[in-house]
Specification:
Helices cover about 80% and strands about 0% of the residues. It is an all-alpha fold. It has a single domain, classed as Four Helix Bundle (Hemerythrin (Met), subunit A), CATH 1.20.120. Helix 3 runs antiparallel to helix 4 and helix 3 packs antiparallel against helix 6. The protein is globular, with a radius of gyration of 17 Å.
Length: about 140
């Protein structure tokens, strides 16, 4: 592969750690606001905005994440953590983009459930990502 292209992929990938926080926050907030609207029977226009930024941000984070891991060397447990982090993050992006495209066809409760699934996936992906960075037992270290 051309060295310039290789270096470009590796460089752009370094932004993954900066980009990932926005889709996590937007998708979690979108789910919470949607459930609030379902429970209290209130409408609003905030959820589509949160979903749009969350879905597009998740797609960007997943794409950049693949670039970040491109040609990376992980062995043993780290390889397993990367596998789960990579595919849960990719699944989050695909689900979020699907929910975004179907949002007008979903009932308010169905949208809340779909956003809850997005939140669950993004939380699981974040856990495996943190395990890669801080170690698999990072939650138990004090």
């Amino acid at each position: 592969m051309d060295q310039i292209l290789y270096n470009s992929i590796k460089y752009i990938g370094k932004f993954h750690l900066m980009v990932i926080h926005f889709p996590i926050a937007f998708l979690l907030a979108g789910g919470l606001v949607q459930w609030y609207q379902v429970i209290y029977k209130k409408g609003g226009s905030l959820v589509p905005v949160l979903l749009w930024f969350g879905a597009v941000g998740a797609a960007a984070a997943a794409t950049i994440g693949w670039m970040y891991a491109y040609d990376s060397v992980y062995f043993g447990e780290d390889d397993n953590l990367l596998f789960w982090h990579r595919w849960l993050g990719t699944g989050t992006a695909i689900l979020a983009l699907t929910v975004l495209s179907l949002r007008n066809k979903l009932s308010p409760k169905a949208l809340a459930i779909a956003l809850t699934l997005c939140a669950g996936l993004v939380t699981a992906a974040a856990h495996f990502g943190a395990s890669l960075v801080y170690g698999p037992d990072f939650l138990m270290k004090f």
